[in-house]
Amino acid sequence: xRPKVALHIAxxxxxxxxxxxxxxxxxGVSAVAVAVVTAAMICVLxxxxxxxxxxxxxxxxxxxxxxxxxxxxxxxxxxxxxFDSLRTLSAVSVFSEVVEETALVEYAGKQxxxxxxxxxxCYQQLNHIDSIxxxxxxxxxxxxxxxxxxxxxLAAQLGVGAFFQSGLHLYAPCxxxxxxxxxxxxxFTSETCFMAGVFAVNQLKYDEHYxxxxxxxxxxxxxxxxxxxxxxxxxxxxTASLKNTQQEVQHILADxxxxxxxxxxxxxxxxxxxxxxxxxxxxxxxILLIASxxxxxxxxMLIIDKRRDIEILRDLGASSxxxxxxxxxxxxxxxxxxAVGGVVMGTILCLVxxxxxxxxxxxxxxxxxxxxxxxxxxxxxxxxxxxxxxxxFIAAWIPARQLLHPKSFRHEV
Length: 413
Prior knowledge:
Oligomer: single chain
Helix content: 40-55%
Structural class: alpha+beta
């Protein structure tokens, strides 16, 4: 029997009236179950993609396109031919030097450790720092006084605001100097700065710990030389390729430095997102596997209902493999019908949510977002469709395989 003939017979069996209404009901339930789980998989994966993009956008307000760190140690000098070449690279639009260390911040008797980030005059061009300011303005030096811009969580812990007039005192251990047990205060370097603004990235890593100061203050506080930094942050031109530029910068700097993109700067966080998406997918596949058992029962009932047709096909010369193929196609069609319906339903739901935000996230005032974010990615749709069709094929093969052994099949019937 040709595959086209087997496919035609399976197609007729799919839509023809069955001997018992129960078979039609079970077949319909099988297709609906597959469709519902398929739509759910697409919706869940799209929502996870949406949350990932939201978080990525939050980090992009603070993280640079590329960040250069030393492969060993905590600091390095930018007075080298390699960094001179990097400054003139056509794909780099902003070259910003950074000094980042932990310091102790004191204000009105409160002492809190903070991540001090010293930035140069190019930093404001590096990212969208102005867009995340919730108080004051961005300034790290006003020509007379050292200023600071800190995260809203850290500001709340210290009890300070953008327009406070009193200074904040910063302390850091003296570099390359032993602690004086008799006068421990002489073992610390101190600086004073004044509040200029408060930012909010809506990420605890930054809001609760970071404060921005001038790079000159940070170099004095941590005893760095004028061109010693802990990192170099780069902003690329709009037309530059991130991957190619990262490879080019790494080639210029060689193995003494690490060049990280935004994903690699937040590697732990994005790894958690990938693991969460993987586990969610596995859970949904397990649910789909359970739903596919409906297909096993439906096809088994259909085989019993069509046993007279099976005998007629045998008398006409069809082999057991041919009849097996007919019912394998039949089961696969039921699964494919549910898969296509689920893909269409899931895609429509995602597009509606993406454009209109019908399903709200809380009451809209307690969260950053008012509605569940959705990002429909066609690679997810294609992956879900392939998984559904594969499981449908396996579910159809299980009852159809008994047709390969006609003697045992007749005995069971």
